């Protein structure tokens, strides 16, 4: 498919001069819901509903949305409406409370993921923040506030649907069919066409954070610290992924600094990756649009640049 994921496409088209309004967000969400309805009618749970799995078929402004990312999908056994699992599946910020708590879950977890996506489409922000235990606790509480400036121009019907889809109790969430019959979805032709400029600006920041995270994850698998730089370690090469998870391996005098990461670093401070970066050195990102390991270098101040492992 020629188009990128839905959040990147929203920004690209808004920058090109197209209006991004509630009606557009509704148009995108309805197509995602139609795909989920087909899945649920066939007892398939997607389990990883998020923007990266919602792709525009082409770069055309009228291109349809396609739902992908079925690598985590599961089909319910005959006569069952839930699955039992001992692990968490999906992207942490889009996991439903029952998935986070490792309880049995079913089709309502897809409703939750679609609800988080709708929250992002309307505000440019995730409803729950943090990482690890902090994020899990926030999701479990399920307290959603719609009082940031981006929500000022969003209709009450849209807010009502977001809150219903993000109900902490899965039994309280509407089904996909019920959502498609919600006034905000059903009466799309009556929705306001006001450009959501604040939302687009937040989506730019959201996309930038995603690019940075992807770059860090990519480089973590292919960069190693030059052993000559580590006077207090043995001669073995430590992979950058180990250093990020266990920053105590590095000398304390390596001060942390971000260079040339523009505004995206501030929002990225909430991730576990940054906690490692603060201890182990500085990340230099030449261009946030590039995400190969060659575009992100771990650069301890005053010491040689790390080397990329061949074929990382």
UniProtKB/TrEMBL annotation:
One of its GO terms (molecular function) is ATP binding. Signal peptide: none annotated. Residues 1-185 form the Protein kinase domain. Coiled coil: none annotated. The keyword Nuclease does not apply. The keyword Transferase applies. Keywords: ATP-binding, Kinase, Nucleotide-binding, Serine/threonine-protein kinase, Transferase. PANTHER family: SERINE/THREONINE-PROTEIN KINASE (PTHR24349). Belongs to the protein kinase superfamily. CAMK Ser/Thr protein kinase family. This is Protein kinase domain-containing protein. It comes from Anopheles farauti.
């Amino acid at each position: 498919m020629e188009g990128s994921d839905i959040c990147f496409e929203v920004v690209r088209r808004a920058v090109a001069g197209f209006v991004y309004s509630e009606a557009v967000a509704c148009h995108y969400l309805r197509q995602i819901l139609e795909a989920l309805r087909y899945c649920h009618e066939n007892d398939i749970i997607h389990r990883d509903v998020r923007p990266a799995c919602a792709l525009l078929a082409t770069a055309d402004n009228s291109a349809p949305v396609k739902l992908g990312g079925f690598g985590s999908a599961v089909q319910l056994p005959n006569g069952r409406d839930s699955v039992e699992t001992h692990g968490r599946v999906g992207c942490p910020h889009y996991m439903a409370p029952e998935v986070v708590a490792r309880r049995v879950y079913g089709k309502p977890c897809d409703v939750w993921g679609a609800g988080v996506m709708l929250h992002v489409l309307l505000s440019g922000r995730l409803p729950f923040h943090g990482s690890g235990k902090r994020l899990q606790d926030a999701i479990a509480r399920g307290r959603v506030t719609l009082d940031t400036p981006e929500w000022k121009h969003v209709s009450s019907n849209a807010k009502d649907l977001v809150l219903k889809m993000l109900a902490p109790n899965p039994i309280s969430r509407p089904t996909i069919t019920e959502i498609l019959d919600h006034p905000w979805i059903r009466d799309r032709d009556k929705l306001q066409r006001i450009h959501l400029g604040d939302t687009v600006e937040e989506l730019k920041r959201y996309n930038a954070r995603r690019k940075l995270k992807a770059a860090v994850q990519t480089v973590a698998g292919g960069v190693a610290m030059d052993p000559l730089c580590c006077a207090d370690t043995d001669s073995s090469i430590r992979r950058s992924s180990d250093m990020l998870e266990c920053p105590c391996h590095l000398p304390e005098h390596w001060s942390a600094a971000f260079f040339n990461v523009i505004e995206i670093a501030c929002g990225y401070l909430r991730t576990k990756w940054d906690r490692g970066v603060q201890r182990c050195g500085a990340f230099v990102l030449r261009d946030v649009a590039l995400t190969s390991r060659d575009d992100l270098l771990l650069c301890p101040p005053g010491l040689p640049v790390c080397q990329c492992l061949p074929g990382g």
